[in-house]
Amino acid sequence: MSTSDNTTTSVLEVRDLHVEVANSDANAEPIQILKGVDLTVRSGETHAIMGPNGSGKSTLSYAIAGHPKYQVTSGSITLNGEDVLAMSVDERARAGLFLAMQYPVEVPGVSMSNFLRTAATAVRGEAPKLRHWVKEVKEALSELEIDPSFIERSVNEGFSGGEKKRHEILQLGMLKPKIAILDETDSGLDVDALRTVSEGVNRYKERENGGVLLITHYTRILRYINPDFVHVFVGGRIVESGGPELADELETNGYVRFTADTAATQGA
Ligand SMILES: Nc1ncnc2c1ncn2[C@@H]1O[C@H](COP(=O)(O)OP(=O)(O)OP(=O)(O)O)[C@@H](O)[C@H]1O
User: Fold this and answer.
1) Does residue 6 fall inside a structural domain?
2) From 17, 18, 33, 255, mutation site for ligand 1 pocket: most ligand atoms within 8 A of C-beta
3) What would the pLDDT profile of 128-166 be if each residue is shown by its tens digit?
4) Mean pLDDT confidence for 249-255
5) Can you tell me the distance from the alpha carbon of 108 to that of 4, in angstroms, rounded to the nearest whole number?
6) Is residue 5 part of a domain?
């Protein structure tokens, strides 16, 4: 299935999503992390999710991507009406979902070059023609100011934090998903890398008309990637949604207004 069709609109819909993880003590109850998340992301839209540490933002991204540790106990996730929860992880990727993880994993022994071509072949449904592919990779590396020698190194092995994040955006550009979830892609980036990575995300939005779900703690990335919607995520759900001005309010006042509300509700 091709994931690159910028003439159609894609819609990711998350409805009343509840997710738990197994407790490390096998005799104890599982831990409920997501407690009713509702979210709709359409092509061309950028949604920023901001929230305190441990509120469940990464859990939401893992649940959408299909991480086996995160059990959906109720609710639904659909992409263009298709049941994402019924899909395996690779089917989700082929359907057009992409996750740039907060902590990208190292894959010793697999070169970036092999990894990218294999992944692109899987999501595009056919192997890219070699001459086009080489040109495509070269251009993408140059746009992201990545040294071409990195392409022959093992995936993320020995990469600095910032280099790993840049490579996530390289994958985003090459795999051209319909909806991209970027989990703290800005963490650990120096000011120049932040600009380069943000430009990569903006190019993806322009070229693919992609939908972006951006999890972040900082408004600085939102100066480069303009969000259409900002959501405040507290206690396993979205407690308020608004426009970019909401991010400015959070920068100034923090989450006190929202955490106090949640504590009152949970105590009731
Ligand atoms: N596998 C797991 N086992 C036990 N607890 C877990 C597991 N995964 C997540 N949690 C807990 O679930 C809560 C939410 O974690 P999550 O990583 O989703 O939060 P977050 O909002 O992304 O946090 P941060 O902003 O610090 O990255 C945390 O309290 C975390 O310790």
Assistant:
1) no
2) 33
3) 999 999 999 999 999 999 999 989 999 999 998 889 999
4) 93
5) 29
6) no
Cα 114 to middle of ligand 1, angstroms: 32
Q: Give me the pLDDT at residue 232, please.
A: 97
Amino acid letter, residue 154: S
Whether residue 262 is predicted with pLDDT greater than 70 in this model: the reply is no
In a domain, 90, yes or no: yes
Give the domain CATH number at 102. Answer: 3.40.50.300
How far apart are alpha carbons 56 and 52 in whole angstroms?
A: 9
Share of the chain above pLDDT 70, in %: 94
Question: Positive or negative CA dihedral for 224, 228, 232, 236?
Answer: negative
The CA–CA distances, whole Å, from 141 to 186, 201, 202 equal 19, 14, 16
Q: Pocket residues for ligand 1 (CB within 6 Å)? A: 21, 31, 33, 51, 53-59, 69
